[in-house]
Design goal:
The protein is of the alpha/beta class and 225 residues long. The chain has helices at residues 3-31, 36-49, 99-117, 137-146, 160-170, 179-185, 208-217, and strands spanning 57-58, 69-71, 77-79, 88-93, 124-129, 154-156, 188-191, 197-201. It folds into two domains: 3-49; 57-217, 3-Layer(aba) Sandwich (Glutaredoxin).
Length: 225
């Protein structure tokens, strides 16, 4: 008759032990590598730490570059969309703007030279006219020869309405707004292989090394092993 109370009093203790063991088992499972709860924070940190360190001002990853179709110096229609799968260097210049455009052209040329030396597939380089009246075929040829970009870039122009739409989409101050504003806002943009705006260089940030390094970071592939 005395055994029953003892057995009954042992039951709460056994139950408590079972609960503690169950909690310990849950904690161990949560700490195991590969479980969703234990890796959620790590994955988030890894994604943050793996963001590219770019030389210019970065854009968020999900901003698609506005598409356009214009005409190059050879009379061919050129669409931004046709360069999906390839890094694009996009800038807005005009052939008679003087030092600002010459420096931009030289910096881009320097970047292309570096990429060639490293055997990296060259980006598409698109120069959109900021002054279609000034960018006659003769002036464009002269400018490209001056900055050693003949045959290496596509110099794009179009109707006034077409160009205004592109300037507006990219926040460009054209030559008609005055040389001071143009010089202040003239950019070079890098667009990645999926067609997203990734980076903007202003004149004080622009270097051949910065452009070439970031072309590689954005997926420029080596031309051969």
């Amino acid at each position: 008759m005395r055994m029953r109370p003892r057995a009954a009093s042992a039951l709460p203790v056994l139950a408590l032990v079972a609960v503690v063991l169950a909690l310990l088992a849950v904690i161990v499972v949560l700490l195991l590598p590969g479980t969703p709860n234990s890796t959620k924070g790590v994955s988030s940190q890894s994604a943050t730490s793996s963001r590219l360190q770019l030389s210019g001002a970065p854009f968020p990853d999900d901003i698609t570059a506005p598409s356009f179709t214009l005409t190059d110096q050879y009379g061919y229609h050129v669409s931004l969309d046709q360069y999906r799968g390839r890094v694009v260097v996009l800038t807005f210049l005009y052939s008679t703007c003087g030092d600002t455009c010459v420096v931009f052209g030289q910096q881009i040329r320097g970047a292309l030279n570096e990429l060639e030396e490293e055997h990296v597939r060259l980006p598409a380089v698109l120069i959109v006219s900021a002054d279609p009246a000034a960018d006659t075929p003769v002036n464009v040829r002269r400018f490209l020869a001056e900055v050693s970009l003949t045959g290496r870039v596509q110099y794009l122009t179009g109707t006034a309405a077409q160009l205004r739409a592109v300037w507006r989409a990219y926040g460009i101050k054209p030559a008609s707004d005055g040389p001071t504003l143009f010089d202040e806002y003239a950019p070079v943009l890098l667009i990645d292989r999926s067609g997203h705006k990734r980076e903007l260089f202003e004149s004080e940030e622009l270097t051949p090394e910065g452009i070439s390094d970031d072309v590689v970071k954005l997926g420029g592939k080596r031309a051969h092993p």
